[in-house]
Amino acid sequence: MKWLNALKDFEHFMKIERGLSENTIVNYRFDVMKLVNYLEKNNIKVNAVKIGKNTIQEFLFKLSKTNNSRTQSRIISGLRSFFDYLIFEQYRSNNPLEQIELPKIGRKLPDILSLDEIDKIINSIDLKNILDHRNKTILETLYSCGLRVSELINLKLSDLYFKENFIKVTGKGDKQRFVPIGLNTQKIIKSFIINKRSKMKISDNDLDILFVNRNGKKLTRAMIFTIVKSIANKAGIKKKISPHSFRHSFATHLLQNGADLRAIQMMMGHENITTTEIYMHLDRSHLKEIVNKFHPRKN
Fold first, then answer.
1. Where is 195: in which H helix or E strand?
2. With 90 as the cut, is the pLDDT of residue 20 above it?
């Protein structure tokens, strides 16, 4: 079985049978193609059904020379899933990565912005044209609702339930959730839609998409990263930030102000609460305040 044929079938399986998002499928493809490119570069003639543990180990050894533990771990997980699929389809009887351990990685704490830094970034935008207004609205929405980039670019006009003070968000695996949205952010979005977006020529395929580019088409993930980095640099922010920094700041600031961890989990769309618990490690000062305020033996 040729690698590309197996990979194409694997992608179809992930999309149809498992309902994974396009971004997740792209990442799995990237992981498998790393191995395929290694085999081609080293003129190793072996297909997806016949490849053995020793060849995989040689590939991972080379990989460890140029990639950090986190990247190695992700690629190993992606390859395991690929070979598990081949076993499921009865092309193979074993997984060549079955006994290969994931490299140990430390817990990576996300970059967080203070409220002053967020205000500084948003206020640095000169509202000279429609795209400036769009960019300001994007940042306000990222921070106010804690969205992932993929959730932001797919946000639709029909997902805005402002009467109920919620927006409908489509997250990983096409799972939908309702996220509260503040009145100030609603006001900013409404103003953008009525006064700016209405003047843009929107592509027929993207008429319901909230944020579009200058050509009236849905924004890409890469464009959101470019927008955020450009505005942050202009604002003089020295931290290494990304669109995810606004999402992480959303969760951290809620936690610091007394929000329930379970509520944050639901708003973030985390399947497992252990993912949300990472924000407990960012700033422990509020924990001391809770003990001082509520513990019966605080004095």
1. helix 183-195
2. no
